[in-house]
Specification:
The complex is a heterodimer of chains A (117) and B (115).
Chain A lengths: L3 E2 L4 E5 L4 E3 L2 E2 L6 E8 L6 E7 L7 E2 L2 E6 L4 E6 L8 E9 L8 E3 L3 E6 L1
Parallel strand pairs in A: 2-12
Antiparallel strand pairs in A: 1-4, 3-9, 5-6, 5-10, 7-8, 8-9, 10-11, 10-12
Chain B lengths: L3 E4 L2 E4 L5 E7 L6 E7 L3 E10 L2 E4 L6 E7 L2 E6 L8 E10 L5 E5 L3 E5 L1
Parallel strand pairs in B: 2-11
Antiparallel strand pairs in B: 1-3, 3-8, 4-5, 4-9, 5-6, 7-8, 9-10, 9-11
Classes of the chains: A mainly beta (117), B mainly beta (115).
């Protein structure tokens, strides 16, 4: 079974609207971490946000927030007030187990987000 | 900026030749990783290191070897390159800040074409 599933291969969103990128995960570990990365057309991987499995509050970083629903095993990325520069591939990733600092990540296949002016 | 560089950034090679990719970091991070990125697969872990001379296999390690003789350098070697190893290779480091915040930073990537 896929450990990280991103069901939206591509999305088109109007500029200034909010957008939610879906991510579901599968793990039997109690301790795990969830990451989101952005990959623009230039190719670099940019870290956006992190959520630990024991974190009680949803993570936020500027316009990015992570909607963490543990029982549903989902970790959706929400981008508020989208901008043209948000057009990119977005990857969800998971670190399983409690090896703090040793983050072998499993990635989803990504969602290509296109912001329309 | 986590001070990660990769070399070369682009390489074209022929099937059967050995290839070594270098990852260099300047901030003394203990953990380093090599991933490959292919269309439809996201990124997949090849090998990782948890210290000098301490390495282990990832999900797609066949055909690859690694070495880490210094904290700052993590080398990925394709012993005999094949066309299926045409990919973009990313190096990464882990950084764990006070508390629970974890971050993994990536290098700029190396595009490898095996003809």
């Amino acid at each position: 079974a896929q450990k990280i599933t991103q069901t939206q291969p591509g999305m088109f969103v109007q500029e200034k609207e909010a957008v939610t990128l879906d991510c579901t995960y599968d793990t039997s570990d109690q301790s795990y971490g969830l990451f989101w990365y952005k990959q623009p057309s230039s190719g670099e991987m940019i870290f956006l946000i992190y959520q630990g499995s024991y974190d009680e509050q949803n993570a936020t970083e500027g316009r990015y927030s992570l909607n963490f629903q543990k029982a549903r095993k989902s970790a959706n990325l929400v981008i508020s007030a989208s901008q043209l520069g948000d057009s990119a591939m977005y990857f969800c990733a998971m670190r399983e187990g409690a090896n703090f600092g040793n983050e072998k990540l499993t990635f989803g296949t990504g969602t290509r987000l296109t912001i329309i002016p | 900026d986590a001070g990660i560089t990769q070399s070369p950034r682009h390489k074209v090679t022929e099937t059967g030749t050995p290839v070594t990719l270098r990852c260099h970091q300047t901030e003394n991070h203990r953990y380093m990783y090599w991933y490959r990125q292919d269309p439809g697969h996201g990124l997949r872990l090849i090998h990782y290191s948890y210290g000098v001379k301490d390495t282990d296999k990832g999900e797609v390690s066949d055909g690859y070897s690694v070495s880490r003789s210094k904290t700052e350098d993590f080398l990925l070697t394709l012993e005999s390159a094949t066309s299926s190893q045409t990919s973009v290779y990313f190096c990464a480091i882990s950084e764990s800040k006070t508390g629970t915040q974890e971050t993994q930073y990536f290098g700029p990537g190396t595009r490898l074409l095996v003809l």
